[in-house]
Amino acid sequence: MSNAIEISGLRKIYAAQGNAPAKEALKGVDLNIPSGSIFGLLGPNGAGKSTMINILAGLVNKTEGRVVIWGFDQDVNPRQSRAAIGVMPQELNMDPYFTPRASLEVQAGLYGVPKADRWTDGLLELVGLTDQAEAYARNLSGGMRRRLLLAKALVHRPQILVLDEPTAGVDITLREMLWNNVRKLNEQGMTIILTTHYLEEAEEMCDEIAIINHGQLVVRQGTRELLSRADGKTLVIDTGEPVDLPALPDGATPEWRPDGRLAISYPPSRIRADQLLDALRSANVPIIDVASEQPDLEDVFVELTRG
Ligand SMILES: Nc1ncnc2c1ncn2[C@@H]1O[C@H](COP(=O)(O)OP(=O)(O)OP(=O)(O)O)[C@@H](O)[C@H]1O
């Protein structure tokens, strides 16, 4: 399977309700998600990410378009396409009187997983809830609830796992545990789709990234290629003390930072770092230390979703 998911011409119009007018949340999106990848779906608030994920999960009906999940067209084989995907939702709602073990058993029942094929103990172990297997959900910490949600998404051994803002508001330890789990599942062949507001996280975790804005796909690229789109780097130089600056190559912009260091932003496509350093040296500007700052996903994201 080369693509885990194929989306074409996907539109969603939420009908008008009361005073709220109809809303076109997705305006004809085409997107293929390669199998085996960790794929980031990013966009500002209200861009349409949850709508897209909910359509994939079979929770929201699309208005138009075609969605193929693991080779199964949603409209032709709804059961198989649903079975191929597991979703870890954002919200932490769960029945307070269910134990993690019972939750997983109920979820497996909903997916029609026969008793003999269930892997409840393995799942509890995977997410580190073995000791809490018989605790009431209301006694679980927020982090444990999230781990349980991850386990619930996996009861039917889906080929594709969707994580909707999995680390919003979680502490570093839990975040690392989640990512270790996700990497392990990905190494075993699972395709991972992730939405997150933490762009650093997307930059670190995702092989490829799609950005949607106002219901449209703005870009879809490998993470590295996407980062290289931002044509801006910064040299940060410790000059010891403020000095007069010589003329710099056209396109370079110097600025003194509050910490006293000199920051020169420049487009690496047109200017090389040694041209900047040569200009400083020939004007006898002391160069005590130099650091280079790369553009990050945040820069690219802001540029692509502006306006
Ligand atoms: N059930 C609904 N009824 C009407 N409009 C909706 C509904 N759900 C979402 N919308 C609207 O559709 C648009 C896209 O919303 P969606 O939740 O998909 O965005 P999002 O990218 O997931 O945003 P966020 O990051 O805030 O979760 C928004 O304008 C939202 O108000």
From TrEMBL:
Pfam families: ABC_tran. GO terms for molecular function: ATP binding; ATP hydrolysis activity. Residues 5-239 form the ABC transporter domain. This is ABC transporter ATP-binding protein. It comes from Paracoccus saliphilus. Keywords: ATP-binding, Nucleotide-binding, Transport. InterPro entries: AAA+_ATPase, ABC_transporter-like_ATP-bd, ABC_transporter-like_CS, ABC_transporter_ATP-binding, P-loop_NTPase. It comes from the Bacteria. Signal peptide: none annotated. The lineage of its organism: Bacteria, Pseudomonadati, Pseudomonadota, Alphaproteobacteria, Rhodobacterales.
